[in-house]
Amino acid sequence: MERLEILKTYKIYIGGQFPRTESGRYYVISDKKGNPLANICLASRKDARNAVVAARKACGSWSEKTAFNRGQILYRIAEMLEGRKEQFVAELIKLGSTQKAAEKEVELSIDRIVYYAGWADKYQQISSTVNPVSSSHFNFSVLEPMGVVGVSCPQDSSLLGLVSTIIPVITGGNTVVALASESLPLCAITFAEVLNSSDVPGGVVNILTGTQKEVVATLASHMDVNALVGNTKDFNSFSEAAVDNLKRLISFDADWTKPEAHGLHFVSDVQEVKTTWHPIENIGGASSSY
Amino acid sequence: MRTDKEKPVSPSEIIAKSPQIDKVGVEERVARFQTRSIKNESKMQGLKMALSMIDLTTLEGKDTPGKVMQMCYKAAHLHDQFPDLPTVAAVCVYPSMVKIAHEALIGSNIQIASVATAFPSGQSTLEIKLNDTKFAVDQGATEIDMVISRGKFLSGEYNFVFDEICAVKEACGKARLKVILETGELVTLENVRKASDLAIHAGADFIKTSTGKIQPAATMQITYVMLMAIKDHFNATGKMVGMKPAGGISTAKLALHNLVMVNEILGPKWLDNQWFRFGASSLANDILMQILKTDTGLYQSADYFTID
After folding, report:
1. Would the pLDDT of A240 be above 60?
2. How far apart are CA B222 and CA B209, in angstroms?
3. pLDDT value at A252 more than 90
4. Measured by CB atoms within 10 angstroms of the end CB, which terminus of chain B is less buried, N or C?
5. What does DSSP say about strands B176-180 and B206-208: parallel, antiparallel, or unpaired?
6. Looking at CA atoms only, how far is residue B41 from chain A in angstroms?
7. pLDDT score of B87
8. Is B299 within 8 Å of A245 when comparing Cβ atoms?
9. pLDDT of A235 over the 80 cut
10. What CATH number does residue B135 fall under?
11. Using CB atoms, which residue from B299, B302, B304 is nearest to A222?
């Protein structure tokens, strides 16, 4: 007897769990020939709000982990992704990649995670400063995570774009609500499975599938979302809604395969600078080295 | 309906008359209260009503005068940026903090509730419990939240429990008495009903679910059973008794479900902070966030509200 194939149900990822969208809606994506590939959850505004609640809940403990521990967990994501390379390659091919391009994309993604894993316990030292002031103060600035960050993942890239935009945000101790590429969402949900099995606490990364009009608009106006990362051309329609809590908007327009598509600023852009004025005895005189 | 309303009844008679509880039926009925659709205008009214019914509570070993004063300020100024908000109904503190709350709330209509009678366990002598009560009243408490002796209740010493409530009621003087059943320790819904009936007949002005120290606390099933006890008593005697679910009600949604239930069981007369209260510490902020959300359309962040 012929074996029945078990088809995968692609669900969304909220608070470390894989629920269906509460709205019960879905959309169909197809391969290049027009054959349907999968039913994808069409996340609602309510799903986006639930994801924000989950992300906020996860914020405290994630940002309080030691930088070194966050680096270890990020490295673990890379390890798990390495182990499931073939699955991602197969999915990318389904979505229209060639074998070679798919392999390259998965490898670049793994390398990019390892790259940010390295930054986890270094960005703070590199970006913090001791500032010269003309009073009796020791004045220094350090970075602190912003909190909950919304990420509208690149539309034209399935895995690499998602990894390149999400990972630097969590490297700095933020939590994320991400909307996957609308037309290429398969790898995003499979990547959520990788996150789920690599010691990333539930809620640190939440991944939704659906439309920018619904999900990103909700994130933009939500007072409990501290920053929004997304493509430059997608932002114009949402920037006004983001004014109410002075949400920081960080836009990118990058070719994710290029070396300039990673860097320290991807981490430090989603950080707040805290400056401390520490009173000291007068060392502002000529002999002071500050 | 009872006809012998004037005749005094003994605790064992009260217990014998307590009805059996159909647990499955209770769950089905409670589930229906949670499906009512509330339109925006009524929602705003309901949220404000829920705010006005809160007993803003701090009952911790680490309470300090500063913490109590801060909470009293919050009780009177919930969110001054938003006009026309009610104040909460009362603050609820330990007896040692009553004086501080009393001074902080001079000139407001906010009641001062104090837990007493060796709260939360109630494991002490009657004498100490009565002194505890009198001390709180002398310090300025206008409401007393007492705990029943659950150990005695569970071992069937209903007379003891009944007499204790009567004695504390007497010690309260003019202060209103809320009787905490600590339903989390009573195990069954039948026991909750029996304890409710006992407390009501012993002179409770309010019956209250829990101390907040034990889970489960104020589930809707338990509140439902207690509301039914109040209803049966009202039908039999015409006397109103108040209800206070406490512990575990931390979201505006749950508060609205509770109000729906009170309205459908006891009617609009009970939709008043004279007769219905929420014992809660973090509920107020969630309701405030919902009120602002309803007003502005924007989902709110705890960053813009007080830290409890």
Report:
1. yes
2. 8
3. no
4. N
5. parallel
6. 21
7. 95
8. no
9. no
10. 3.20.20.70
11. B299
CA-nearest of A195, A200, A207, A194 to A84 is: A194
Reported confidence tier of residue A281, pLDDT bands at 50, 70, 90: confident
Average of per-residue pLDDT across B70-99:
95
B137 inside domain: yes
pLDDT at A280: 87
- Inter-chain contact B298–A224, Cβ cutoff 8 Å? no
Taking Cα atoms as reference points, which of A30, A279, A286 lies closest to residue A135?
A279
Known catalytic residue at B145: yes
Instruction: Tell whether B185 is covered by a domain.
Output: yes
Which residues on adjacent β-strands are paired with residue B146? B179
Q: CB atoms < 10 A from the CB of B139, how many?
A: 17
Q: Residue B117: which region, alpha, beta or left (left: phi > 0; alpha: psi -120 to 50)?
A: left
Write down the domain spans for chain A: 26-270
Confidence of residue A31 (pLDDT cuts 50, 70, 90): confident
**pLDDT, averaged across chain A:** 93
The bridge status of strand B54-57 relative to strand B278-280 is: parallel
User: Between the CA of residue A259 and those of A67, A269, B246, what are the distances in Å?
Assistant: 24, 18, 58
Backbone angles phi, psi at A251, to 5 degrees: -110, 150
CA B49 to chain centre: 15
Under DSSP, is residue A245 helix (H, G, I), strand (E, B) or coil? Answer: coil
Decide: helix, strand or coil at residue A265.
Answer: helix
Is B244 among the catalytic positions?
Answer: yes
B195-253 tens-digit pLDDT: 999 999 999 999 999 999 998 899 999 999 999 999 999 999 999 999 999 998 999 99
Q: Are the beta carbons of A190 and A18 closer than 8 angstroms?
A: no
* CATH superfamily name and code, A26-270: Aldehyde Dehydrogenase; Chain A, domain 1 (3.40.605.10)
HSE-up of residue A134 (Cα within 13 Å, Cβ side): 0
- B2 assigned to some structural domain: no
Domain interval for residue B151: 11-304
Given pLDDT bands bounded at 50, 70 and 90, which one contains residue A284?
low
Residues from A in contact with B at Cβ < 8 Å? 49, 52, 56, 218, 221-224, 244-245
**Considering its fold, how many domains does chain B have in total?**
1
Angle (deg, nearest 10), helices A67-83 and A160-171: 160
B chain contacts of residue A49, beta-carbon cutoff 8 Å: 299
Beta strands A248-252 and A227-231, pairing class = parallel
